[in-house]
Specification:
8-stranded parallel beta sheet, two-stranded antiparallel sheet, alpha/beta, TIM Barrel, 10 strands
Length: 378
Amino acid sequence: MTLACVADFREAARRRLPRVLFDYIDGGSYAETTLAANVADLESLKLRQRVLRDVSRLSMTTEVFGQSLSMPVILAPVGLGGMYARRGEVQAARAAKAAGLPFCLSTVGVCEIGEVAAGASPPWFQLYMIRDRAFMADVLAAARERACPVLVFTVDLPTPGARYRDARNGMIATSLGARLRQAADGLAHPGWLFDVQFGGGPHTLGNVAKAAGDLRTLGQFWGWIGRNFDPSVTWRDIAWVRERWSGPIVLKGVLDQEDAREAVRSGVEGIVVSNHGGRQLDGAASSISALPAIAQAVGGDLVVLMDGGVRSGLDVLKALAAGARACLIGRAWAWALGARGEAGVAQMLAILRQELRMAMSLTGCTDVRSAGAELLDG
């Protein structure tokens, strides 16, 4: 299969992965209307094509929190990455490093911080707050010791969203019947089976393994998350995090202008305009539709990033024009990893880079750092 765009990697991942894993990457909450809106609203934005501009020299580099990016793209935190390919977070982090881009490791990744740092470079670290604060202090200490440059604090998951696909495919079930169906599906995907199930262990939530206990199935993983994530977290808890983290803190999951202003008042350095990829509150605004007003509300007080629905280099340029400094991509790299491992992620990033270059050339944008609303039509 020739892989020419992100959608092709999605199809290749669908063929290679067991259904329960593909649905976990691909799906959203409830009827998936917000998931669809993330993509559709980006598609509906029109770029303004310009001609007879000198575009012989283009600059795609930008800087975020003192880190130089070869293009305004960051690999977003994605849970269970090590279940899509053998030690998957390490493979994705290596591809990101080779491309000159940051990789953000999820709290609920399979590979722990030290393994990713040793296999590639210190990742950005994404924090989910669980009830055991002493253990969370240990997790933050591990991230500091591994020199993680940025902490991404996800704040839009006080409780897991209801995901119908996961219920239908048996992911959240722990019954013997559900486990047998998953085992049969694994046997039907021998490439994945030998790469990951037989050769990719240990299959644990590496960063929280000491607190999570002996979890053996995806249903047990998800059940532990639901029981242990802390729904009592408020703005006051940012001070608790700050006492244990001196580097940049980015709040991921901001969709409201007042929350963005509160983020400024809380003293964090950045936000990610995000609806968790349409995996939490279905019916919430798409990320791209919320972005311009939020970017205007916080002005230059915060670094504004965005995720949700980014499927091409054209989408990256649209997000920059709407007010983002850079985009986080999640499903795109997870599909690419599930399709072809590290090589797939590298190829997907090369495609995004070429698409961004083409979009810049045809809109007359010679530097991503100067991309603004003038690039959009209407």
